[in-house]
Amino acid sequence: MNRGIVAELEPIFYPRGVAIVGASNREGNFGRFFLEGFLQMEFEKLYVVHPREQEVLGVKAYPTVKDIPAEVDLAVVVSPQDTVPGVVGECAEKGVKGVVIFTAGFGEQGDQGRRLEREILNIAHRGHTRIIGPNCQGIYCPASRVTHFSGLSRESGTVAMISHSGSLSAILPMAAIAQGIRFSKVVSSGNECDLNAVDFLEYFGQDPETKMIIAYLEGVKDGRRFCQLARSISKEKPIIVWKGGTTERGARAAASHTGALSGSNRVWKAVLAQTGIISAQSAEELLDYLQAFYYLPIPKGKRVAIVSGPGGPAVATSDACIEAGLELAELSQGTRRRIAEIIPPVGTSTDNPVDLGMGSGFAPQWYTDSIKAVGEDEGVDLLLIIGGSWLPNFGDMVVEAVKEVNKPAALVSMGLMLMVPTKGIAIYPDGRRAAMALGKLVEHARFKASD
Amino acid sequence: MNRGIVAELEPIFYPRGVAIVGASNREGNFGRFFLEGFLQMEFEKLYVVHPREQEVLGVKAYPTVKDIPAEVDLAVVVSPQDTVPGVVGECAEKGVKGVVIFTAGFGEQGDQGRRLEREILNIAHRGHTRIIGPNCQGIYCPASRVTHFSGLSRESGTVAMISHSGSLSAILPMAAIAQGIRFSKVVSSGNECDLNAVDFLEYFGQDPETKMIIAYLEGVKDGRRFCQLARSISKEKPIIVWKGGTTERGARAAASHTGALSGSNRVWKAVLAQTGIISAQSAEELLDYLQAFYYLPIPKGKRVAIVSGPGGPAVATSDACIEAGLELAELSQGTRRRIAEIIPPVGTSTDNPVDLGMGSGFAPQWYTDSIKAVGEDEGVDLLLIIGGSWLPNFGDMVVEAVKEVNKPAALVSMGLMLMVPTKGIAIYPDGRRAAMALGKLVEHARFKASD
Fold it and tell me: Domains of chain B, with CATH numbers?
């Protein structure tokens, strides 16, 4: 079934026409919500299917999918559960390539729901129609103007996402977009009665637009194929996974959420060790690691140099770096002499962590000159910069200095500066989070270099 | 020396007059920086000591401390290292109760610096003068208008802080103040040649203004006394400690930062187990836990109920709760029936984690009614609420519902809502952080209940 995964999924992500089945003029109708998203994206070949409506939000409505006088490659179905088999049958007859079933109340509710899923699948396969869902949010692909939520960016990027949670398939991209990150494709795959996370992983692995993959997963249906694919894709494209259902109670919640079998935490840990997948333990960690992979080059080694104004955070972040698997670089005598010429001799340190002292708050060039000094030290692979000057051009100066150095750099704003990440520099509010993110870059570099 | 710690420290935190020694009109002078802070606080009995200045920022300058024609209980010294022994001698003769030595270049730089510290201490003790520092930022006490940084609040509160980092003694309070938290007293104690963290812990333990204590510590000089005090104070006032120098490289950095001997991580873990101290591993964790202790009541048990709109975060946060030492409450049949009447039967769950489904984004009363339902369940000790409605009055509605329930509650905003914490409800951007903070409340409750 998955031999030609790209050929099968490409028309679904780049459809010639989209039908929203069940959209109505009623306030709070979920079809309207999808329709609003597509209209914001200025997707043009858009059709509504509804038994009674003539038009919804200015989009013409047809009684059935088969009545639409144009090609439809993607249908998004929000109509009631009992209408879904009929709708899928019409889609199959019409030659629709993919049907997103938003409607819930299937496998996640027990045996009867699972039987209904099998029935739908049989109907779909009569017409070579693939199913995404049910109980899912569907897909976002800014290059084709397909969306599954209002308020996402129309700009395309290099990150793909697979999600077993509809809400996270919107919340996480929105948070990342606010950091300047852009997505190639996002899919919320729900109960996965047909297409599943492994299919999308395979597709994103081959997708030239996609350079890295993030995922929120509850259970994985075909563990062996998942591991094989993840292991080979990870060598080229970092895969960052946040796994839900790693405890018994979490797994019980996952079963009623998407009907997923989460598997044991022990098995998941073995998967991580084998595949090179970067593991995140929360939404925040996932976004932190994504930021590092999106904006920073892959480091050549694990030796980090810390450059800090405040002394306490420099000490504690040294601890955090060690715990994150980094090593504190031993700066060369030449580098230390260079730094000694930049900063005063008292209340400072030229040893790593380099402590610029209190005066650095008024002297942004102490930061930038020290960044260049440690950055040009051959014994340094990564930079971690803490704090900064209150002067308004500090951010631009640091970005410029880091660019000259061309090594992965993270800046810890201590919650006091408002800076956005940009190529070459990731921004974190806390030293420990910066250390952990840099640690994940090193972990990935090591996996890439392994056999 | 510490028999009457309150009697000794009270005049230093509530001084009749303050001298800033070394403040000048030169741009970037640190004495000016202190002076600006005191002027912002509208501290009135303020004097400058400088050999040449007549007046700094409108404050009259005297050639020496002894020339000030009024009582001075606190002196803040920023003058060069070689002038410090002389200044301390004058303070001792004048009867100054406490001298904050901001000037660095003492014990943190090696043996010669340590000798100088002993010399200063001998001079100070001739006049019953106590030393804070050197290499420190000094004290903040809004009730007396004493400050050590510009931009802190003039409102007094219930949190005391002890810091081995001058910058953190300002950065952390500033971040907490932005969350509505207010401080009783803050001290940055630097190299601690005289008064040390244990002295301040004892004082804050007895201080009626102080209801909880946070600390950033690198090394503790009198470990046995620290443990005894911490253990007894923790029973009444939660103590949250972020420890720097827990790794070899962190300890090396701490030694050059404040000359501290950090001790091994193994010893520190034993201290935590023995004393009931709440351990934070980063600035962010410290602030997260502080928020919980500041705004929430102490829970009666460890059974948490999760109420969530988004399903994925509910699953993953269930895992995080288990990992944080909480237990997912088994909701009573009555509670589940109540919830079933609030939310639709499909795409939702009345089991804990309660999944309100996608529709809850448009229906804030699903949240508030469910909060009341689980909150009134006798099997529930804590509430963790995830996501919310986009409607603007959602925040107020949730605060109201939580108030009725009167159990500790945390709300996870998923980074999408801007809400500030308030009595009864703490706010976190991430489910895992909320779970960990609630876990610390439970840990403290258990310690309080132990013998």
Answer: 5-132 (3.40.50.720), 138-294 (3.40.50.261), 297-449 (3.40.50.261)
